[in-house]
């Protein structure tokens, strides 16, 4: 029995702390990636659409258009 293979004992002391720290790191990294992707996929196109809309929007012309339909009683 001289060629017996020794099996490494499992780590029991500090296992919860080690796994908790790894889980926290994974959660932080996942949240950062998700936040970055959300900003690139949702927020940036929305900001560009608002910017494009407000460049061509004329509030006075829109007011006159609504006023001519008779919505406002006082104008």
TrEMBL record:
<comment type="similarity">
    <text>Belongs to the cytochrome c oxidase subunit 6c family.</text>
</comment>
<comment type="pathway">
    <text>Energy metabolism; oxidative phosphorylation.</text>
</comment>
<dbReference type="Pfam" id="PF02937">
    <property type="entry name" value="COX6C"/>
</dbReference>
<keyword id="KW-0496">Mitochondrion</keyword>
<keyword id="KW-0812">Transmembrane</keyword>
<dbReference type="GO" id="GO:0005743">
    <property type="term" value="C:mitochondrial inner membrane"/>
</dbReference>
<keyword id="KW-1133">Transmembrane helix</keyword>
<feature type="transmembrane region" description="Helical">
    <location>
        <begin position="24"/>
        <end position="42"/>
    </location>
</feature>
<dbReference type="InterPro" id="IPR034884">
    <property type="entry name" value="Cytochrome_c_oxidase_VIc/VIIs"/>
</dbReference>
<keyword id="KW-0472">Membrane</keyword>
<dbReference type="InterPro" id="IPR037169">
    <property type="entry name" value="Cytochrome_c_oxidase_VIc_sf"/>
</dbReference>
<dbReference type="InterPro" id="IPR051389">
    <property type="entry name" value="Cytochrome_c_oxidase_VIc"/>
</dbReference>
<keyword id="KW-0999">Mitochondrion inner membrane</keyword>
<protein>
    <recommendedName>
        <fullName>Mitochondrial cytochrome c oxidase subunit VIc/VIIs domain-containing protein</fullName>
    </recommendedName>
</protein>
């Amino acid at each position: 029995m001289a060629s017996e293979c020794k099996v490494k004992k499992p780590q029991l002391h500090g296992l919860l702390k080690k796994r908790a720290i790894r889980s926290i790191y994974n959660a932080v990294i996942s949240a950062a990636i998700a936040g970055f992707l959300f900003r690139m996929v949702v927020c940036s196109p929305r900001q560009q659409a608002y910017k494009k809309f407000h460049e061509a929007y004329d509030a006075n012309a829109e007011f006159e258009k609504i006023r001519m339909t008779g919505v406002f009683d006082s104008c």
